[in-house]
Amino acid sequence: MSSPTSLEDKVVLVTGGSRGIGAAIVRRFASLGSRVVIAYRSDHAAADALSAELSGNGHECLAVQADVADPDDITRLAATAADRFGRIDVLVNCAAIGPYRPLGKMDAPFVRSILDTNVMGTVLMTEAVLPHLTAPGGRIVNFASALAYRPIPASSVYSASKAAVVTLTHAFAKELGPRGITVNAVAPGVIETDMTTKILAERGDQILAMTPLARIGQPDDIASIVTFLASPEAGWITGRTIVADGGVT
Ligand SMILES: NC(=O)c1ccc[n+]([C@@H]2O[C@H](COP(=O)([O-])OP(=O)(O)OC[C@H]3O[C@@H](n4cnc5c(N)ncnc54)[C@H](OP(=O)(O)O)[C@@H]3O)[C@@H](O)[C@H]2O)c1
Q: 5 C-alpha vs ligand 1 centroid, how far in Å?
């Protein structure tokens, strides 16, 4: 029999858990014995497949559809997770959208859609989970991006939304520290997911050449940072954003 890990039986809610980096995070927590809520917006097939895969391997999980840009959905998601598992130990705010547009092509719906999902979603998810979050000992891991520090052309609104997440992380850590809850963020460079299919097709060779570790980042590279930040071993780290980009910056 394998020995218990420090994340065994923890209740973990991962937004954007159906695909890409979020799905790798879900799998990693499950492999460490955590019980996982897989939150997703629209890709039922991906969420169902992941849920079936984990259940088939004996892991406890629950897939919940919820749009993090919709405050009612957020409230329902947090309540559903708490009803099922009795508490939430870890919140991973991973859901985001990342469309690019240059100046000259901006309009209000475009800007709002990014800010609603990436910024408001992070704020209101945190707000909704807080009454159910274990304290002391609770963990929040947010998703920024290396672009928050070094935007590229046409990424302005997405990059600014991720800079907001860096600041929210710092501020929330100060507010929640006295309750024994840590709040940190991960800022990945380019990771191979659906979000980066186009950019990797157009500039993959250039990105590879800029990367000291000489490969394109994979979702698992980020999942292991998230489980570390969620673990008791990371209890003295809060308010930090960890850039993980293979050395590019
Ligand atoms: N990939 C990269 O290179 C990279 C780099 C830096 C930062 N990041 C950040 O890392 C995180 C994960 O990125 P990824 O590449 O894994 O993205 P992805 O493959 O595009 O997956 C996005 C996930 O977010 C969910 N989602 C999107 N909008 C949502 C909404 N309004 N409500 C609820 N769920 C929503 C999607 O659910 P559905 O499929 O159901 O719609 C999906 O599960 C994001 O925060 C992203 O900004 C990624």
A: 28
